[in-house]
Amino acid sequence: MSRDESFYDKVGKVNGWDFSDLKVLSEGVEWDFYEEVKSRCNNTGVLLDIGTGGGENLLQLSTSLLFTIGIDLSNEMIKKAEMNLKNSTVSNVRFFQMRADELRFPDGFFDIVTSRHAPFSSKEVFRILKTSGRFMTQQVGESDKLNIKKAFGRGQSINEEDGALKERYIRELDEAGFSHVQAFEYDATEYYQRSEDLLFLLKHTPIVPDFGRDQNDNKILNDFIEANRTDKGIRTNSKRFLIIGEK
């Protein structure tokens, strides 16, 4: 099991990928990913969600589609998704543990493929999409939560050039054969309302790798909170990019 897989298994046991209880004020967010997906769905469509986590978003999206499938590399995430499905009234969703670069689906099977904050294979996505099918992905930019990563001196993509991942994905989608690729991005300001909201974020995401491993991490976090506390909350940023490709 890889380090990342182990991390997401741990998160899956706790809460899937549900951050709905966090109290965060955002300014400058230009889209909601699943609303963008929903606007392009119809009731005859079949959708695959790569990196579905606990499946919370897919279950909400399923009413706009004929059938949906969610996959995740983490077995614990899939267990959480299955539990969420069982506790819902949804009947047109299935979940499977599966690698994104080895999709066990026939060619041209899906109308839409989505991937939110999860890796994917452009070639595999292209293969399983129908002609005129659409791929939509939202990813985290390298400069996301930049002031947090600077405070800790370590963090996800901290030494990588901002925009490099977006350009790489665009290039890979072009090479895979997508005929029309569009990209959008925003850098929003986030205000976490409570210290425990920020603590939850760091414990359940890989923003600061192995948060808590160092005995100074809690002190660094407390100092960060005091230095970035405003009337609106504890300030940081959310860097996101959206790519839409058509086959």
UniProtKB/TrEMBL annotation:
Keywords: Methyltransferase, Transferase. One of its GO terms (biological process) is methylation. Residues 48-129 form the Methyltransferase domain. One of its GO terms (molecular function) is methyltransferase activity. InterPro entries: 23S_rRNA_MeTrnsfrase_RlmA, Methyltransf_25, SAM-dependent_MTases_sf. Pfam families: Methyltransf_25. This is SAM-dependent methyltransferase. It comes from Bhargavaea cecembensis.
